[in-house]
Amino acid sequence: MTTALLAIAGVLGLAVGSFLNVVIHRVPRAESLLRPGSHCPHCQTAIRARHNVPVLSWLALRGRCAACRQRIAARYPLVELCTAALFVAVTARFGPSLVLPAYLYLAAVAVALAMIDLDVRRLPDAIVLPSYLVGALLLVPTVVANQDWSAAVRGLIGMAALWAFYFAIAFLYPGGMGFGDVKLAGLLGLYLGWLGWSSVLVGAFAGFLLGGLAGAALLVTRRAGAKTAMPFGPAMLAGALLAVFAAGPVGHWYGSLLVPTV
To answer: Per the UniProt record, which residue ranges are transmembrane (predicted)?
Structure first.
């Protein structure tokens, strides 16, 4: 693993994060991602290229539009930095491998879907459904190159298993689980199943654990009530990413609790 590769991943993450800001803003509104070009949401002035450099432009403009001087939310550079950090972490996890693009795509989708779900309490089909095909196609090269059919089968079973599990919850308790969560669960099952069964189990459990902790924190701080609808997508995505990076150590630790060494 070279420093140059990680640096490239970070720069790519910043660029992708800049595009994700457009996705987060426009997809829930069913707007085109291409036209019009980047513009200030307040005065509609087109953003010049020199004012569209990730993070640096926001800092240079002191968080304000160059034309109307309205504030630009700090969330924009934070999304770019978060995406860059995830890209570096994923690159460090998988190295220069054929499977790397698939998990970089997962990282990008995770950022976009988490932010959209927090904003509008939805996980848009326009992102989730095509991601099944994109994810599968990005995973194909490593199957062909390594003849790793077992990983492909695990991915398909993981996809079906998590989809069915979340569907059962949504069917039995419709007020606590949306069908958008069900569709997202299948996508996460594909990626986690590809890595191994421990990743599926850790990812699913971590999602519910993180969701429960977030809900409890909101209740304690009185930022939400017992009947407040809370987005579950961010917790699912965070749990899945945790499993991508730490399923092995977590599974080993849990196994040691069940079968303690003498």
So the answer is: 6-24, 102-120, 127-145, 151-173, 203-220, 232-254
- Whole-number Å distance between alpha carbons of 232 and 207: 8
Nearest to 47, CA basis, from 26, 32, 68:
68
CB distance 68 to 45 below 8 Å: yes
Q: How far apart are CA 66 and CA 47, in angstroms?
A: 8
Give Cα 94 to chain centroid, integer Å: 17
- Type of residue numbered 95: G
Closest CA to 61 of 79, 80, 48: 48
- SS3 label, residue 64: strand
CA nearest 18: which of 91, 77, 60?
A: 77
Average pLDDT over residues 21-44: 85
Chain segment 50-98, per-residue pLDDT in tens: 778 889 888 888 888 887 888 888 999 999 999 999 999 999 999 999 9
d(CA 177, CA 173) in angstroms, rounded, equals 7
CB 198 within 8 A of CB 249: no
Choose among 230, 204, 205: nearest CA to 215. 230
Q: What pLDDT is recorded for position 212?
A: 87
**CA contacts within 13 A on the Cβ side of 101:** 11
Query: Is 84 within 8 Å of 92 (Cβ atoms)?
Result: no
